Amino acid sequence: MMRKDFKTAAAIFVMATTALTATAQIPAGYYASLKGKKGAELKNAIHEIIKNAKVLDYGNGNGTTWYGFYSTDQAEDGMVIDRYSNDKRYFGAKGSAVSGMNIEHSFPKSWWGGSKNQAYKDLYNLMPCEEKINSSKQNYPMGKVTTVTTDNGCTRIGTGTNGYQLWEPADKWKGDFARGYMYMATAYQNMTWSGTQANQILTQGYYPTLKEWAYTLYIEWAKTDIVDELEIKRNNEVSKIQGNRNPFVDFPNLMEYVWGDSITYAFDPETTVKADEYIDDGGGDNPDPNEENILQVDFTTDGGGFTQNASTLPYEGFNVWRRDNQYGWIATAYYDNSGHDSDASLISPEIDLTEYAGASLSFTHAVNHRSTHAPQDVLDVEIICDGQATPLTGFTWPAGNSWAFNNSGDISLDAFAGKKIRVAFHYRSTTAENMQWEIKNISVSGTASTSSIGDVTDRNTGIDFDRKYEMYSPDGRKLDKTIPHSGIIIIRQDGKTIKAVMR
Question: Which of 146, 316, 333, 365 is the most buried (most CB within 10 A)?
Answer without folding.
Answer: 333
